[in-house]
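Recall the central idea of this unit: under ordinary conditions, the amino acid sequence of a chain determines the structure it adopts. In this exercise we apply that idea directly, starting from the sequence alone.
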Amino acid sequence: MLALSLTSAEQMDRKPNFVLMMVDDLGIGDVGCYGNNTIRTPNIDRLASEGVKLTQHIAAAPLCSPSRAAFMTGRYALRSGMDSVGIAPVLLFLGGSGGLPPSETTFPKRLQRQGYTTGLVGKWHLGVSCEHRGDHCHHPNRHGFSYFYGLPFTLFDDCLPGEESPIMPGTQESFQHLSMLLGIGFITLVCLRVLGLFSISPSLLIALFIFIVLGTAVWYIPFKWLRMWNCIIMRNHEVIEQPFTIETVPQRLLDESMNFIKSNADRPFLLFFSLVHIHTPLFKNPAFAGKSRHGRYGDNLKEMDWMIGKVTDMVDSLGLTNNTLMYFTSDHGGHLELSDSEIGQTGGWNGIYKGGKFMGGWEGGIRVPGIFRWPGRLAAGRVVDEPTSLMDLYPTLKHLAKDTQPDRHLDGYNLMPLLEGKVERSEHEFLFHYCGVKLNAVRWHPPGSDSVYKVHFVTPKFSPPGAIGCYDTVMCLCHGDQTHHNPPLLYDIFHDPSESLPLTSDTEPRYSEILQRTARAVEKHEITLSAATVESQMTLDKILWRPWLQPCCGTFPFCGCKENMTDISERTSEF
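Accordingly, the structure predicted from this sequence is:
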């Protein structure tokens, strides 16, 4: 046993460690232990066989920023202003002013107060600065992480040289047309003045020219320079690579995660390993090329599973197994519409569940893997079929860290009684499914019943009609042209998890009761929301790029730097 190993007595005396592993855009149907029999995920499956697997683990939103905000805070994203009010569903620029408010309480903040060393390695996507470059008001360090290494934004197609993301294509087109019109108008004014048909002073012409150039630069060019502005790596507050070399990102994040565990093996720690797999663009690691039956997407799944295995092996090799709660999940479901003419499927598979990423309350976009391993504390191989939520991590970690200080309203519940088998029922009688600020659906698990009813008020319109997604575009958004249901669509997702057989008053004896009970639950829930209004962080003005907020290494706008690759594998993290 290594010198850093803990004796049984020491394990009993110290607080547990936490290793939380969240992947990006993973479909629940992509994982072996959740029913996939065409691809092997042995390391994730091992966690499930040695721990507890949740079959109704639910994300609070079907897309990144709001889901992660809810995960960090234990509350619906609407309570922190992290739900979209319009066309932009997530944060789109690092140079925007939106993000998780510094006044919010997160589970790493709570654990820091209990003596934990806390680290985030990987994706953040919850903002950086508010008023000026360097205030770091939304930064992970401001939200309780002692150490941060990774992507303050996310992985976008733009991060791969030569690729482009369809970010707000309508807005890009509008800026382009506006710039063209302004340019044509300026040239027309110049021509009229030269011909003596219109009188305008040279100073005013110069002012108009500067206005047009600056307007184009500030509001249109950023869409064309997304790789430079968004694809960066930070260590704490410092930008250390801009833009990053995408091929090296997975190994660097893995090395940082393992270094963090090793460096903190003798004290209580929290590691949030926020992987950038399996979001596009997909990686091209030769070591995993051709290793699956699902092209590059499957190869990336294999690489992600291997990374999970390496982190697990590090915990075990240091003798921390019995004092470490390990957790595996995804931030939401797979992105069904993504494909590439050359490499085929590039988005996830959600198994038997309808819908996917962006799609409101459909199960495929919000039902995610949920696996907890803690040998000696949690029974191996246990399966829990009760509704649970990503928001449950906050109160669970708080309980295990022996944090008894008062807290604000939480929407999650401590999972330990359910994970340990001390109770059979989840405390989530109701769960509310948002897309943006709009409530799309409600889930009700009636006491004394196995049924879990899902009431859909709004659903996205699939295109073409009869499809399972929106294959004439890159995403099936939950705003704009939607289907409003009156009366609502009703399913029993315990007996009909595919949401294929709508219930009616003729087929469900409790039909009227279900609609009435969910309506009353919505009213009570909305009262709790109105009790504390917060400023929306996802308005268009907060999301759009502002040059004075753009993180930069070097002199703005000439940003650019590369991390020294020679000592990455040997680097000891600074804690």
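The longest strand covers residues 482-492.
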